[in-house]
From TrEMBL:
The lineage of its organism: Bacteria, Pseudomonadati, Pseudomonadota, Gammaproteobacteria, Candidatus Competibacteraceae. This is tRNA-Thr(GGU) m(6)t(6)A37 methyltransferase TsaA. One of its GO terms (molecular function) is tRNA (L-threonylcarbamoyladenosine(37)-C2) methyltransferase activity. Keywords: Methyltransferase, S-adenosyl-L-methionine, Transferase. GO terms for biological process: methylation. It comes from Plasticicumulans lactativorans. Residues 3-142 form the TsaA-like domain. Belongs to the tRNA methyltransferase O family.
Length: 226
């Protein structure tokens, strides 16, 4: 069996460090550009009737590092080890991932582009298949979630220092502040640093973002074009 990408994701996450740990946690925009010969309008005919889609994709940034039989999931603080098949770790025998994302729209000229929201995918991620999300089959009310039974941890408050606020004020995208706050409020730092203070940097959209965490609040100190 030969498997090849049907499309490539374009997202604001320019490095693995910034990507949310699950889909739907940050409603940032992304697109999926279909590749030839799959970039045909008839291939997505009827898909506009669905609100969400499943994406089967490759963990391309870590694939060369191979797989590990046990991993340390962030939900367990990055300390306890469990089997790789009990997690959504990127270090898998076959480096494949599965995410459900909101389908905002579809453009069919030129080419085919799916407009998405809430993706947890690195910019440049290859996608191997697209399937519509079916609530009656895919949302299981009696499902158990093991060590991840609780919801995500509380979000951090996000504020912008004057220098960063000035960059946002001059930017043509009015929702950029909202999107940055949504991503940074998830605290992208390693799990073992949760609850601690300190500085960190991350690449989001076209910016190198420099931040500081103190007292449960993220302050964006600087937005520098990468």
């Amino acid at each position: 069996m030969v498997v090849e990408p049907v499309g490539v994701v374009r997202s604001p996450y320019r490095e693995k460090f910034a990507v949310p740990r699950q889909p739907g946690l940050a409603a940032l925009p992304a697109t999926l550009e279909l590749l030839p010969p799959y970039d045909r309008a008839e291939a997505v005919r009827g898909l506009e009737a669905f609100s969400h889609v499943w994406l089967i994709f490759a963990f391309h940034a870590t694939a060369a590092q191979g797989w590990k039989p046990t991993v340390r999931p962030p939900r367990l603080g990055g300390n306890a080890r469990v089997g790789v098949f009990a997690t959504r770790s990127t270090f898998r025998p076959n480096p494949l991932g599965l995410s459900v994302v909101r389908l905002v729209g579809i453009r069919t000229a030129p080419g085919v582009v799916l407009e998405l929201e809430g993706a947890d995918l690195l910019d440049g991620t290859p996608v191997f298949d697209i399937k519509p999300y079916l609530p009656y089959a895919d949302a299981l009310a009696d499902a158990r979630a093991g060590f991840a039974a609780d919801g995500p941890p509380p979000r951090l408050a996000v504020t912008f220092a004057p220098a960063a606020a000035a960059v946002l004020a001059a930017h043509p995208e009015p929702r950029l502040r909202e999107w940055l706050a949504a991503a940074l409020g998830l605290d992208p730092r390693p799990a073992y640093k949760a609850g601690s203070d300190g500085a960190f940097g991350v690449r989001l959209f076209e910016f190198d973002v420099r931040c500081e965490v103190a007292g449960g609040c993220v302050t964006v100190l600087e937005l520098r074009r990468a």
